[in-house]
Write a structure and sequence with these properties.
Helices cover about 30% and strands about 30% of the residues. The protein has about 190 residues and is of the alpha+beta class.
Amino acid sequence: MGLDMYLEKRNHVKNYDFENEEERVVITIKGKEKDTKNIKPERISSITEEIMYWRKANAIHKWFVDNCGGGVDDCQEIYVTRDAMKELLGICETIIEKCPLVKGKVKNGETYDAKTKKWIPNMYDGKVLTNIEVAKELLPTQEGFFFGGTDYDEYYMNDIVRTRDILKKELETEEDFGSYYYEASW
């Protein structure tokens, strides 16, 4: 179990009666008959691409819920505009620029100490962010059951860098006729 997160793009490919033959999209379905026999190409109206998958990137999840989902966190599908993706890209770039990683102690789980009856964090050498206040202001982490860690460390930064890289590539083209959706489950 855990926070699984998806950003998808639906490419609209519906053919309309008023379109000329050269304007129409041709869709061919190939594969095992048992998997494809009930798919009717003439009825396909969109093709969905998975743009990005995250696992337990709770700060990114919080941003989508707060900025695109009206603060409602119900595992619902959330429409995401290209402008919203550009905004998130800018936030990621700012954090990468202003919060470089330095050597530090990183938490990786906890161990229960039966003598003290307390959970003790498992710490190891790793990297942590500088200027944590910038990250907390722009893209704060969020606690939640199965949401992963909330520290501002190398794991947090890996999610930010990966998000920046994927969004930058996705937003390279100006002309786009698809619709974007974010959805999470836990």
